[in-house]
Amino acid sequence: MSHNGTSLSPVFVIDRNESKPLHRQVYDGYREAILRGDLVPGQKVPSSRELASEIRVSRFPVLHAYAQLLAEGFFESQVGSGTFVSAALPEQVTPSDSRHTEDAEHAPSGHRPMAARNRLYPAFARDSHLRTGGSFGLHQPACDQFPFNIWSGLVSRHSRNPWSTSLQRVDPMGLYRFRQELCRHLRTARSVKCDPEQIMIVSGSQQALDITARVILDPGDAVLVEEPGYNLQRTLLEAAGCRLKLVPVDEQGMDIARAPRCEGVKAAFVTPSHQFPLGSTMSATRRLHLLNWAQREGAWIVEDDYDSDFRFDARPIASLQGLDVNARVIYIGTFSKILFPSLRIGYLVIPRDLVGHFEAVRYATDIFPPYLYQEALADFMEFGHLARYVRKMRRIYGERRNALIESIHAEFGDFFQVHGSSAGMHVSVTLPDGFNDVEISARASSERLVLWPLSRYYTGEHPRHGFVLGFGATPTQHIPSAIKRLHTLILGPARDSAFDYAARNLTVADHLSLESRAS
Q1: Considering the entire predicted model, what is its pTM?
Q2: CATH architecture of the domain formed by 130-138+393-518
Q3: Which one of 21, 80, 90, 252 is at 20 to 30 Å from 30 when CA atoms are compared?
């Protein structure tokens, strides 16, 4: 690997009061940087004259140190080009055992205070089998279908000739032009009641939840959350010191009538249009009961509308916020599911009397969101690209949903119970008693399957076991073979005689009809 274009010196201190000669200090600084891997084979180093000027010593100690490093093979000289870290050195010079020894010798000592709430955050599983490639990955849209030729043109245009306000304007709420376009979209597509002044642009729905918690919640407050529900939401609320009260979810969504009796509940966090992870849609009756509860208790409702644009058998369900006549709903949305996750653009629709409080928290914690992608996305919406893309993806995701349901019934019959197939980019399936979804999930990567255990989304003592199967990034033609591998993983290649073989021939319409009657 060549790093010839990089000419950097490692950071080391020259101490003129030290007994060690200057040339030895320079030599040791470079040698240790190479052994640590800070300087890599083929990387260019400054000329002796440049380094001497930089560290403010005469050139002779530097020449002496370079000569020693050349003699020992750490450096190599190329006539007319300069001096480089030797390309013959391996990329990782320092053996692992010596690194561990050095780390042990320089381990921090003494009391190292940490916040108690830090223990409430689970460690990020960087190498988890749930983040490897494979069929049924969750929260993964079909990025290969996105019109990157159009998108890159919009981003390039605003990069080449940006507005001065986009470079220098500081607005905690975000780019006003983008908020205008987003406001029109939300009014039309989601029946959200809002003006651009109520919309705050954030870095995804997780930041929206964090800012909301900072504004409306104090440590010790009780909040209602769905059971099962979104793990990161619960982690954030627990870290804020809140007491979580679990409300069961069924085919009609959260049932506020079954909420635990508790004084002083401050807020309810819900996913009414497509409950996560079970996928149910909150009925109109329960929506009105929830709104009445919030007004009666003086509480807030936080509506997370994370993937409601993709509904397959009817028009998208109107937002809960659109039914609210008392400004009790704080509405959260994101473009991560519609477009692609790394875009990191989400939004809040804030009740008017809370806007100033949200602005204050946003400015103190994050100042304002980046403007470049907001400019591009504003154009993407204004020119009609977003509406066309959503229509296209609704058709593609509908085909993938159909293939998944048909394949599940063809392979498993009534072994699985399927939930939440009318919208979004995932369905949930529940297992019969006696199966452990976490154990099956751990084995699934060997079959190129990414199975998110349903039980992980429960906090109570009696979780249901099953899987949350994302189909957004799994092509239609790959789904039948992936379900066959899932069957082999769970039950082996032989068919179970206890299966209801008639159920294998259910069409998607039959399945949805049964699911509708069950709800």
Answers
A1: 0.79
A2: Alpha-Beta Complex (3.90)
A3: 80
